[in-house]
Design goal:
heterodimer; A: Alpha-Beta Plaits; ten-stranded mixed beta sheet; five-stranded antiparallel beta sheet; 13 helices; B: 103 residues; two-stranded antiparallel sheet
Chain lengths: 443, 103
């Protein structure tokens, strides 16, 4: 029976470069998928594109492609990636240029477009998916709107002979579903098989997270070789049978326990996992360890996809002003707390316009706010003051009032840091499928 | 005897907007029933009091001996606009397995 091997070449925008090269050289893969587009990135990339029509794709695109283009061209490995971000066409043109520079001939490169629905959404009457509030509440501040495309446009590009497919906003599992659909001629309304493919895509989409990354807990879950972590390979058959594996000898671990953690990563109701392709059912999924670092995946299912596209809407939210200062030695916590109180009073005196202030002690309670139950105090602690403001000028006041604690605050404050950044936030809307028209452009 | 969940289960947290989900996966299949009974959505909500401000729902995954807790209003306004340091709530899984239960 026909089989296809797909490598997970990257799991986020700034993921390591070499594991994909290893997959290409030693993984015997037919495809390499690079998932490099987080929620917010496409909004800031869209702003970049509006300033420069040749930009707006992933900043590491050249670096990543330079590393894999030669070996992929030599071995006939096809590449699928969402590094197109806000400008898939420019990204595809850039890759085409790179091929010329590298003396690589004969590769067909396609861009999938149509995810950008900014003007449509700017004028669309609807409510926000997460909150139910009217879109009017953020309408004036919208900078981008991109629909999560499914697997079908990428599959169409592959059917058109593409060796490299560059897309923008896409559901991550769909990047893996597309080559399976193409190779096996799976119908987009075969909901069972689309559910199977989607579960496989979900396991693969974060690369190292299924092969021992985001996993180790010394003494409880010990993993070797994370410095040379091998990224995953999915080998899938025409009937949906599939195994996950990695390059033998590479670092990490592919096991029941790593697969279970990745299966439940970023999912809510496991019986209804929504993608543009299908509503997948994870509840029947089972893993079997076939041999070292080889896992069989069974039991996935799916049902009729929803009749809407989910659209990521980027909008200008606010600014964050921040200052940090460290204290050490016994009494560090008391001094840091005192410093925090002074900063708070100073910002009040300065008339800072802010409706949200956060004072954390890094080393004690800063990640989300939960504190250890024990009374043991850290020997060093770092004060962090952060405020949400409407303007950059207001935000700068926060760092000012922290850095001045060096000479005006408690003893021994050091290692000061200040920052001002604009927050482009993301909310979602749902729009009817027929309003989105993806298409394939060959470069 | 009080034990930390860490002794019998592992967890990974994920994020989507203002929602965090934490899994709880039994190391040994025979501990799944105990986890299902002892680690309720109410207890998880109480454990993260002040951090998770919305509802907590527990989904069961008996085929892989795991539970999935979905926590609303958990990211202080959402990953893309929160003032928190750990904007994705990556730490939630690690904090969760520090929770104690009576064995």
């Amino acid at each position: 029976m026909k089989k296809v091997r797909i490598g997970g070449g990257a799991g986020f925008a700034r993921d390591r470069i070499e594991p994909a090269v290893e997959l290409a050289e030693k993984g015997d893969v037919d495809y390499l998928v690079f998932e490099c587009l987080a929620e917010r990135t496409i909004a800031t990339d869209n702003m970049e594109k509006m300033a420069n029509p040749n930009k707006g794709y992933n900043i590491w695109l050249e670096r990543r492609m330079a590393a894999v283009l030669p070996v992929c061209a030599r071995k006939g490995i096809k590449i699928i990636t969402n590094m197109g971000s806000a400008n898939p066409e420019a990204a595809a043109r850039k890759i085409s240029e790179m091929c010329k520079d590298l003396g690589i001939k004969g590769l067909k490169i396609a861009a999938v477009v149509g995810d950008n629905v900014t003007e449509l959404v700017r004028n669309y009457k609807t409510t926000i998916f997460e909150t139910g509030a009217d879109l009017d509440t953020i309408r004036e501040k919208i900078v981008s709107a991109n629909a999560y495309l499914g697997a079908e446009p990428t599959a169409e590009a592959l059917r058109g002979g593409a060796d490299i497919v560059v897309i923008g906003r896409s559901a991550d599992p769909s990047l893996f579903v597309a080559p399976m659909m193409y190779e096996f001629n799976w119908a987009p309304d075969n909901w069972h098989i689309m559910g199977v493919a989607t579960v496989l895509g979900h396991l693969m989409e974060c690369a190292g997270q299924v092969t021992g990354g985001y996993f180790a807990e010394p003494g409880y879950k010990d993993v070797e070789g994370l410095d040379v972590l091998g990224f995953p390979i999915c080998e899938v058959s025409e009937n949906g049978d599939a195994i996950l594996t990695k390059v033998p000898g590479s670092g990490g671990e592919l096991s029941l326990r790593t697969c279970k953690e990745q299966l439940l990563y970023e999912i809510h109701d496991p019986s209804k996992y929504f993608t543009p392709d299908v509503i997948a059912d994870f509840t029947g999924v089972e893993f079997t360890q076939v041999s070292k670092d080889v896992i069989r995946v069974t039991g996935a299912d799916g049902k009729h996809r929803s009749d809407t596209y989910k659209v990521s809407v980027g909008y200008r939210d606010s600014f964050i002003g921040e200052g940090q200062l460290s204290y050490g030695g016994s009494g560090a916590v008391k001094r840091a707390q005192m410093a925090g109180e002074i900063a708070k009073k100073r910002l009040l005196l300065q008339g800072l316009k802010s409706d949200e202030t956060r004072i954390d002690l890094i080393g004690l309670n800063s990640m989300v706010g939960l504190k250890a139950k024990s009374d043991v105090e850290p020997y060093e602690v770092r004060l962090r003051v952060a405020c949400r403001t409407e303007t950059a000028a207001e935000a700068a006041k926060v760092g000012d009032e922290v850095v001045t604690l060096l000479t005006n605050g408690p003893a021994g404050g050091g290692a000061d840091f200040v920052s001002v950044r604009e927050l482009i936030a993301i909310l979602s809307v749902l729009i009817p499928r027929d309003l989105v028209k993806p298409s394939v452009i060959f470069i | 005897m009080k034990i930390k969940l860490k002794e019998i289960a592992h967890s990974r947290s994920g994020d989507k907007g203002d929602i965090s989900n934490v899994s709880l996966i039994a190391y040994k299949p025979e501990d799944y029933e105990f986890l299902k009974k002892e680690v309720t959505a109410e207890k998880v909500k109480a454990y993260f009091k002040g951090i998770v401000l919305g509802d907590v729902v527990c989904y069961e995954m008996p085929k892989i001996k795991a539970l999935n807790f979905v926590m609303q209003k958990a990211q202080a306004g959402g990953v893309t606009r929160t003032l928190r340091m750990d904007i994705h709530g990556k730490v939630f899984g690690s904090l969760f397995v520090d929770m104690e239960v009576e064995r």
